[in-house]
Amino acid sequence: MPQRLTPAETSRNGAKAEGGGIQSVSRALGILELFGEQRPTLSTTEIAALTGLNRATAYRFCHTLLDLGYLEETSPRRYRPGLKALSLAQAALSSRELPDLALPHLRALRTSTGETVNLALLDPPDVIYVSRLLSDNLLALRLFVGSRLPASSSSLGRAMLAFLPEEELRRILGKQRMVKLTEQTITNRKELLEELRRTRERGYAINDQQVATGVRGVAAPIFGISGRPVAAVNVSVVHPVTLEQLEQELAPQVVATAATISELATQLAVDVG
User: Fold this and answer.
1) CATH number given to 96-267
2) What is the value of pTM for the model shown?
């Protein structure tokens, strides 16, 4: 049986949602949270297995979400997020000031490097892409605004995790599923902490094929008015490149871009969350 992921606090015996919340709302939103890059569509049976709901209950929730436009049926009892869900996601992303503020500088970085440039926010235990400027290389990863990746696996995530207070970092890593995306993905907690230490020392994170084979990148944190990392910018490279090239040619440009955006965000009192 697949590992249950969400709704976060539901169970087979119908326990109430934590914090006195409304259980049906928690379950409905939890079903929507199941969909992602690895699961673009799901059947009623799969949703039941992932949530711990019985199939009849899972079907009722899906049917309600279908009627409301938050799910679409791709085939009998198989669903994907509907247009209303996509509209909500877009509204949430467009309400953030940081992507608009950063866009000219992301474009400049894209022009100077010729590579794909990304901006992501930390939404523990993941990062969520909020800007993505593609290179001309047709082999770019199939990611888009709203895509999620495990924070511990991506350079974007590690660039932010490395600069968080220790207690907050420990809490996030406690939720993090160390998923092995490639042979190079760090799945050992001790190794991850050592990599975060190196990231703090040099001021940027390196991705050496840890998200996808053949993809390398470098990321730097963006700091908000609170002095804590609120986002990260990275350059993603899908053609052959050495780590020396990443560190000597691309890292300085990424760090400079992140510093510029951080300064502007601080001056204009822009933050996220």
Assistant:
1) 3.30.450.40
2) 0.67
